[in-house]
Design brief:
Butyryl-Coa Dehydrogenase, subunit A, domain 1; 4-stranded antiparallel β-sheet; binds flavin-adenine dinucleotide; alpha+beta; about 375 residues
């Protein structure tokens, strides 16, 4: 038995799954092989209101109360079908929209939120650099203040949405000596001269989701691009990650669910030694453990979304949900591949794709080690929020 959702949540959950089955699944295997991204689908998702979960109606959002639960259920359902197509929930919605809604001024909200929500402007959030990953405050991209604005110089890498970004949140140092207190956040129009995007074509998985590098070469942005105050970027970034982590965890839950469904179907069909695989005690042990790992991560993720909808500060619970969902998705995908035997090693069945795609959840939005570090810091009493 599952939770009984409100009519509104249940219809959104179902709409997301049906949409993914109808619009993503038919060409998915071919698109995966060709590493094909379809921007027109983002627009279609926008038309259905999928990126409007967290914003008020005045900017084109849905004005929902249970906004994080809605976003979570939808991302989970998409990732059940295609982890690649769960990504737009973060780049169009959870990342940039949370930053603008919580820290942006009215002009920024009015200018950028409608395009992100409608899916007409590709979104992103750019933190990571070639020499700065987990250690966010060591970033080298600079935003140098001039009379009428800032000049951006530097390189971002592994940015989801690139090279299709129209609008994004870019983090850069305005005062390098001040370390994390010298970081600022900007909402950037990517048609600005001096900004170029280049795709990364060497990925292990998520082949239908674009990821790439951004180069800033003397890119002049106006003063009005600054989000919040100068030096507030680190705080903005950590607040944003608290939401994008939830979405990554939600997608991991979707992957685990599909791996269990696929493994059970196969274990009932495939026979060895004169009986279906599912009759073997060791296969039952695997499926039993996969089921509990999945259920436990789902509960952590839903609690996390519910807490956010209550307006609670839940950094600890977000890290727990993100860590556990990432690890259990990888566990379930790996066990599913084992249950499929050699067919699990083949792209003829979806479980090898789920295994490759699930690795991303242990890396993005703060690695599993970083989540464990945060959880331990709370347990040890080193941090309170
Ligand atoms: C598919 C994909 C999409 C992505 N999308 C985005 C995006 O949209 N925007 C963006 O900004 N970034 C994005 N990233 C980048 C991602 O956020 C970083 O890769 C991640 O933060 C880790 O940084 P890193 O790869 O530099 O690893 P590093 O920080 O170099 O870490 C390497 C290893 O060391 C471990 N480690 C590091 N520090 C510690 C520590 N203090 N204690 C213990 N272990 C530690 C890590 O856990 C990891 O195992 C994406 C990455 C991928 C793979």
């Amino acid at each position: 038995m599952d939770f009984k959702w409100s009519e509104e949540l249940e219809s959104m959950r179902k709409m997301a799954y049906d949409f993914a089955v109808k619009n993503v699944k038919p060409t998915m295997e071919e698109d995966e092989k060709e590493h094909k991204y379809r921007p027109e689908l983002v627009k279609k998702m926008g038309d259905q209101g999928m990126f409007g979960c967290i914003a008020p109606e005045q900017y084109g959002g849905l004005g929902l109360e249970e906004r994080n639960l809605a976003a979570t259920l939808m991302a989970t359902e998409f990732a059940r079908v295609s982890p690649s197509w769960g990504l737009p929930f973060n780049v169009q919605m959870n990342g940039p929209q949370n930053v603008l809604l919580k820290f942006g001024n009215e002009e920024q909200k009015e200018k950028y939120l409608p395009g992100l929500i409608a899916g007409t402007s590709g979104g992103c959030f750019a933190i990571t650099e070639p020499n700065s990953g987990s250690d966010v405050a060591s970033m080298r991209t600079t935003a140098t203040e001039t009379g009428d604005g800032y000049v951006l110089n530097g390189t971002k890498t592994w940015i989801s949405g690139v090279p299709f970004v129209g609008t994004g949140i870019v983090y850069a140092m305005t005062d390098k000596a001040a370390k994390h207190k010298g970081m600022s956040a900007f909402v950037v129009d990517f048609s600005t001269p001096g900004i170029t995007q280049r795709p990364i074509t060497t990925k292990l998985g998520l082949h239908c989701s674009p990821t790439g590098e951004i180069f800033f070469e003397e890119a002049k942005i106006p003063k009005s691009a600054l989000v919040g105050k100068p030096g507030q970027g680190f705080q903005i970034c950590m607040t944003m990650l608290n939401f994008t982590r939830l979405s990554s965890a939600a997608r991991a839950v979707g992957v685990a669910q599909s791996c269990i469904e696929e493994a059970c179907k196969y274990a009932n069909e495939r026979e060895q030694f004169g009986q279906p695989l599912g009759q073997f005690q060791m296969i039952q042990e695997q499926i039993g453990r996969m089921s509990v790992e999945h259920e436990a991560s789902k509960l952590l993720v839903l609690r996390c979304a519910w807490q956010k909808d209550q307006g609670l500060n839940n950094t600890l619970e977000t890290s727990m949900a993100k860590y556990y969902a990432a690890e259990s998705a990888n566990f379930c995908a790996s066990e599913a591949v084992k249950i499929f035997g050699s067919y699990g090693f083949s792209s003829e069945y979806p479980v090898e794709r789920f295994l490759r795609d699930a690795k991303s959840y242990q890396i993005v939005e703060g690695t599993s080690n970083i989540q464990k570090m945060i959880i331990a810091q709370f347990a040890l009493g080193y941090r309170k929020s």
